[in-house]
Amino acid sequence: MCTSIIYTAGDSYFGRNLDLEISFGQEVVVTPRNYPFSFRKMPSLDHHYAITGMALVEDGYPLYFDGANEEGLGMAGLNFDGPCRYFPEDPAKDNVTPFEFIPYILGQCKNVTEARKLLSNLNLVKIDFSAKLHLSPLHWLIADKSGEAIVVESTAEGLNVYDNPVGVLTNNPEFPKQLLNLSNYQSISPAYPENTLIPEVKLNTYSRGFGSRFLPGGMDSESRFVKEVFTKAHAPKGKSEIENITNYFHNLHAVEQQKGLDQVAPGQFEYTIYSDGINLTTGTFYYSTYGNNQINAVKLEKDRLDQTELLQYPLQSEQAINFQN
Ligand SMILES: C[C@H](CCC(=O)NCCS(=O)(=O)O)[C@H]1CC[C@H]2[C@@H]3[C@H](O)C[C@@H]4C[C@H](O)CC[C@]4(C)[C@H]3C[C@H](O)[C@]12C
């Protein structure tokens, strides 16, 4: 499972938890403006917006899991196994493969409005990256620095683009069903509830936090969706970058998967491999990994964005403990 969010507190922060049982060898990758992006069915993009994100570099090509461009548009791919369908090439459409989708959008669009235009004639065409790396069934959260967010899902009906008023995406079911399910939890509150059960009897209120007593807490995607929507809706807005990024990571950690809790095969457990977030105004990319709770950061080096070579930053996965004596 995975969870992706956009959190706005002055600046906007975009990113995700990547939850899986295996790691792909991903790292922080900056694709500069003049790296030639080739596409299987579309003309290549020799000049484009620079992109920073988490990617696996395979045969020199950055396979992005999530990222954002220098204009402040972010995009993340999350598992969508079941409803997801990709299609044969359609000569009347712009045919983009799912593994090219993030560079295609982030390379060319400044914001969600521009992304919607490219999406209006797009076909997610079924072509594997290689015999070794097949397509993954994904859906995507796209959001910009204004806080506007949309979800893209390719299903049997074709390509669906939904407004996302809550700025959260997890996994199944289809996004409209996730939104509908929120109404089941509309009475969840940070405030202490009024006793409407039996007002004339004074109840023994033995604990704080009763407003969120029925908030789901499971690892499944519906539970994480509801929990994250509630957490983010009430998250404080900081006055500094440090406060904001701290709040942002607490949001993602609210739906983190600890090792041992989500069994996917005998002896195999899905867990939160990394959490990341990018400031959509400054382009600074932050991340932590399961093994290293420290927040690491890669600043956007504006003077290196005109080159053609990828900039790669291996993940710092060793725990960093601040010993005080
Ligand atoms: C598995 C990842 C999504 C995490 C997630 O949602 N997990 C939930 C699993 S489940 O619902 O509980 O089953 C996705 C996100 C981005 C994906 C990667 C990116 O799309 C980039 C390439 C694309 C290639 O076609 C396949 C390898 C790959 C390197 C993908 C592997 C994998 O499918 C990734 C890493």
UniProtKB/TrEMBL annotation:
Full protein name: choloylglycine hydrolase
Similarity remark: Belongs to the peptidase C59 family.
Enzyme Commission identifier(s): 3.5.1.24
Residues making up the signal peptide according to the UniProt record: none
Any matching Pfam family: CBAH
Residue span, Choloylglycine hydrolase/NAAA C-terminal domain: 2-312
Enzyme class name: hydrolase
Pathway stated in the Swiss-Prot or TrEMBL entry: Lipid metabolism; bile acid biosynthesis
Any GO molecular function: choloylglycine hydrolase activity
Keyword Oxidoreductase: no
Catalytic activity: taurodeoxycholate + H2O = deoxycholate + taurine; cholate + taurine = taurocholate + H2O
Encoding gene per record: bsh
Keywords: Hydrolase, Lipid metabolism
